[in-house]
Amino acid sequence: MSVGRFNHNGVWAIYQFEIARALRTLGQSLVAPVISTSLYFIVFGSAIGSRMREVEGVSYGAFIVPGLIMLSLFTESLSNASFGIYFPKFTGTIYELLSAPVSFLEVVLAYVGAAATKSIVLGLVILATANLFVDVQILHPVWMILFLVLTAVTFSLFGFIIGVWADGFEQLQIVPTLIVTPLTFLGGAFYSISMLPTAWQKITLFNPMVYLISGFRWSFYGQADVSVGVSLAATFGFFALCLVVVGWIFKTGYRLKS
User: Fold this and answer.
1) N or C of the chain: less Cβ packing under 10 Å?
2) What gap in Å lies between CA 89 and CA 208, rounded to an integer?
3) Alpha helices, DSSP H only, in the chain?
């Protein structure tokens, strides 16, 4: 791979290809999440919301919106990025990519940028859908965008790592299905951890999803289960860790050159 001047055309070509792939499945990419979001509001908003009107002064229907967005952001970022880099490995075109005049940084930038873009658009679509059911307030819109973008980029990097690591399509689903989704549900996506018994509150703090969801919810309602500074530091820490792992992958050629 080239390590010379920044190859704008190469980055843009990969980025466009990944975005075009998403547009070919627009129904699956956007319509399905809208339907899922509507079902969440029907089930959680009606069934649970009728019994639990408010959480920390916020209507239950509005309270779960940040958690819904984060849940979709986590899973879609992982899925988009992991499949994006795994498919060239599966078809064998990864070797053409490795020999092309684009650097490691440019490859990551293109794939992660495309995956993050799709996830951010999805998050905004879910936010718009949620407004059809409840009145959503965003007290700190700049911070909301920051958490949205940072989370999308971070989990796209994580997805890139999974895509490189995976040996089959089944492995692409292991982390999102068996780890990320359960941790998200247990991380306060649909409730405040202050509602848990004291012992469980302490145990829950070991769940990294708590910090991401809490910071994002704070940007909406000014309320958080943990300090916003801690949430932001945890998100940046995970982002930095993913960068280090991606750098190691390209430095060693782990599962790229064999």
Assistant:
1) C
2) 30
3) 8-24, 26, 32-40, 60-63, 65-91, 94-99, 104-130, 141-165, 169-175, 181-185, 198-204, 209-221, 228-252
CA angle 131, 32, 76 (to 5 degrees): 90
Angle, CA 195 vertex, CA 132 and CA 70 arms, to 5°: 40
Helix (H) or strand (E) holding 58: strand 58-59
Sequence-ordered list of residues with C-beta below 8 angstroms from that of 39, at least 6 positions apart, any chain = none
First to last CA, the chain: 16
Per-residue model confidence as pLDDT tens digits over 200-240: 999 999 999 999 999 999 999 998 899 999 999 999 999 99
Place of tokens 């992991």: 82
Give CB contacts under 8 A, 24+ apart, made by 167-175: 169/86, 169/90, 172/79, 172/82, 172/83, 172/86, 175/78
233 CB-near residues (< 8 Å, 6+ apart): none
Rg (CA), the chain: 19
In the block, residue with structure tokens 């080239």: 2
Beta-bridge mates of residue 58: 55
Q: Do 45 and 60 contact (CB within 8 A), yes or no?
A: yes
